[in-house]
Amino acid sequence: MTQHFIFWGAARRPLAATVYSVAVLLALAACNKADDGKTVGQSVDSAIAKTEQAARDAGNAMKDASKDAQASGNQAVITMGEKIDDAVITTSVNASLAKDPDLSATKINVDTKNGVVTLNGPAPTAAAKDKATDLARRVKGVTSVNNQLVVSAS
Question: Which of 69, 77, 102, 120 would bridge 128 by S-S if both were Cys, CB 3.0 to 4.6 A apart?
Answer without folding.
Answer: 102
